[in-house]
Amino acid sequence: MAKFSVRVSTGEALGAGTWNKIAISIVGTRGETPPLRLDHAGKEFSAGAVEDFQLEFPQDVGAVLLLRVHKAPLLLPVPVGAVARDAWFCRWFQLTPPRGAPLRFPCYQWLEGAGSLALRAGAAKVSWADDHPILRQQRQEELQARQDSYHWKTYSPGWPHCLDEKSVKDLDLNIKYSVMKNSCFYLKVSSAFMELKLKGLLDRKGPWKSLNEMRRMLNFRKTPAAEYVFKHWQEDAFFASQFLNGLNPVLIRRCRHLPENFPVTDDMVAPVLGPGTSLQAELERGSLFLVDHGILSGIRTNVVNGKPQFSAAPMTLLFQRPGGGPLLPLAIQLSQTPGPNSPIFLPSDNRWDWLLAKTWVRNAEFSVHEAVTHLLHTHLLPEVFTLATLHQLPHCHPLFKLLIPHTRYTLHINTLARELLIAPGQVVDRSTGIGIGGFSELIQRNMEQLSYSVLCLPEDIRARGVEDIPNYYYRDDGLQIWGAVESFVSEIINIYYPSDASVHDDNELQAWVWEIFSEGFLGRESSGVPSALETREALVQYVTMVIFNCSAKHYAVSAGQFDSCVWMPNLPPTMQLPPPTSKGQTRPEGFLATLPPVNATCDIIIALWILSKEPGDQRPLGTYPEEHFMEEAPQQSITAFQSRLAQISKDIRERNQRLSLPYTYLDPPLIENSVSI
């Protein structure tokens, strides 16, 4: 007889416990024991419980390879639905053999219905490190089971492929919101809709009566940043600063040569540049910057409340005065084709002409941000990273252990988005200027030009030439976080990969990279996205890119949505009149008539309020309550990572005390580990 002590930990979440029967068998080098039930007086496996059992197995099976967990209904027969409802969230097992140290088997999975699950002892292992055929077979069977459970589909031509599920109701519990998060989400949605419905705004299809009437939206939910936006939205310096620290801080680039289709002259910009200089001199000095929304040129537009909507593809030239001072706009052209019907608007123009031109730029920012920066870069691509991780990396793989916290709830929120945001008749379709068709076209266009360097922050900053523009807090804080993630990833990689050859020889890693390349980037070699990794250095950069985009980048371009949009003229989701083709025609009433109708305003503000803040059940960046790594070395790396993030947060908060508008969108304790809202 072989006597084992068994300790079992059940998760604390609502519904984590089970009434089902739990048994285990041990797979060793000399065979497998029969299943023995874990049973003692009273109820076992309640939520939050850690329980001990003593088991005697009839034979010694040698060195332990696997722990097989068996779950079955307490009473038979039981309706299938009832079995599924009595799911169990197991955190871990600990097995203490008759001789030797305890073995920890991390699980951190929901077990639904009846079935078995094979668990590995906690030490992480890459594929080439498993030399026993039973362990190699277990890796293959685990991956095959996941590939059978989660399938790819094409949601829209030219988009990254995604999970083949129509509704969050169809998702299994391992990728689904927790009961608490789901409840908080729908409570938040229903309360917001009810509030604006009772105020008579949500169903009002007409225009706003005045800018003053729009102030009612500021009472919906107040934030210090939103109040700052309301006070300063007309100021040129604030308009320009949003390209650096607003919700889409990734487009601005240094301008060394004016585009041929943007014929700005010295006379136009002399009032801002001042005496003793010229456009050419400032171009050579590197003090001019360009934001080009050319991707919107010719984009299809939407119909809202039965009225056709309009879009523009503006170019904005900005000036950073040498020696300090705020970034300022110099000129705006609202199309990509210069000419008498596409004037260049200037700060010296009529107040309403200039304000309307800036507002058209802000509308372009809304469209490009929501479709490309937010949806494509920080939702659709993280979904690809998530699904490829499930398909190609077993639980025991060090990269699975490293990455799985950064995929939490991503498949749920993206499935929900395909149900409630980008489906026909839903928010994007009924309340944005370019609608689903325009969103889809923007994503297709960006996919054709998307490069690996755009996803790697240090390379992106260099490529845009914005290394030294002052007061660019997205860059400053983002590079600090990128560096912390990169250092952490490098330590983990060096623990498990002793050489470049060990990277090349990891078949599971290579399959993971290939699947991301083929399913996410559609096999486009021109993207520069790797289809294979040959060195530790390349692997570190790649994994850093994945974690950064799934956490910090997403929070940076998501958390400020409500702050930017609740005062709607700062970020209009649609425009009801075409862009002006001449100067001197804009009046206050014409400006107001161009802005979105009341119901579309409310629809978008509710959506962006929901998407700007996690609805409970949060896990900040670097927080890993599920201990996938058992060894001391990676645990030390996690501790060092957390310490570095804490110092970054301290520095950010000290700096923010000096700012009239604090930049909080990359403060580590506020950043979620994964794309989960």
Automatic annotation (TrEMBL):
Pathway: Lipid metabolism; hydroperoxy eicosatetraenoic acid biosynthesis. It catalyses: (7Z,10Z,13Z,16Z,19Z)-docosapentaenoate + O2 = 14-hydroperoxy-(7Z,10Z,12E,16Z,19Z)-docosapentaenoate; (14S,15R)-epoxy-(5Z,8Z,11Z)-eicosatrienoate + O2 = (8S)-hydroperoxy-(14S,15R)-epoxy-(5Z,9E,11Z)-eicosatrienoate; (14R,15S)-epoxy-(5Z,8Z,11Z)-eicosatrienoate + O2 = (5S)-hydroperoxy-(14R,15S)-epoxy-(6E,8Z,11Z)-eicosatrienoate; (5Z,8Z,11Z,14Z)-eicosatetraenoate + 2 O2 = (14R,15S)-dihydroperoxy-(5Z,8Z,10E,12E)-eicosatetraenoate. Its cofactor is Fe cation. SUPFAM superfamilies: Lipase/lipooxygenase domain (PLAT/LH2 domain), Lipoxigenase. Residues 2-125 form the PLAT domain. GO terms for biological process: arachidonate metabolic process; lipid oxidation. Its main location: cytoplasm. Ca(2+) 1 binds at G15, G17, D86, A87. Residues 125-677 form the Lipoxygenase domain. SMART domains: LH2. The keyword Calcium applies. The keyword Calcium applies. Fe cation binds at H374, H379, H554, I677. Keywords: Calcium, Cytoplasm, Dioxygenase, Iron, Lipid droplet, Lipid metabolism, Metal-binding, Oxidoreductase. GO terms for cellular component: cytoplasm; lipid droplet. Ca(2+) 2 binds at D39. Binds 1 Fe cation per subunit. Its EC number is 1.13.11.12. PANTHER family: LIPOXYGENASE. Belongs to the lipoxygenase family. This is Polyunsaturated fatty acid lipoxygenase ALOX15. It comes from Zalophus californianus (California sealion). The gene is ALOX15B.
